[in-house]
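yo, NADPH-dependent FMN reductase is done. seq:
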Amino acid sequence: MHKIVAILGSPHINGNGAFALDCILKGAKEKGAIFLKYELSKINIKNCLGCRKCVENGGVCVLKDDFTEIFENIKTADTVIISSPIYINQVNGYTKTFLDRCYPLTDKYHKPRFGKRNVIMLCTYGAPIPFIFSKYIRNTGKSLKAMGLVNNRNIIIHGCTTIDKVKNDVKLQSKLISIGKNI
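structure:
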């Protein structure tokens, strides 16, 4: 059975990123996948200290918070979906903190410590220009490779000037469900 860990970085748990993520998960569930969904704005994840103790401790972080559960589930996942709004040309603070805390997935040689898993980056933003942040999103995905998080798909939804853009776009919902079915 395909296991998905879904990360919602947006504080808008009923917003565009959340609804888009739910559409993907709906499609995946229809094909028999199981998933765990984490809403970062609702849980306690401390900022990475940059102490590198995780490198020395076999991937165990010195910080004790809600990230420990997420981390353990990522290690056994087939796919990780990271949904984040783009704020000021990059993922928002919740998502950045999450990404920083994924560092224990790499070893001292910057190789994946726990194997590889597929990553889908799902990003929403308000600018009406398609693909304006695609280079940034692509580079963010590439930076995860050393951790074994292989970015194999980016989903970019632009023009999210209202919180219900995705809810009102049936064609987009259908596309997202189809993506979920093909994970």
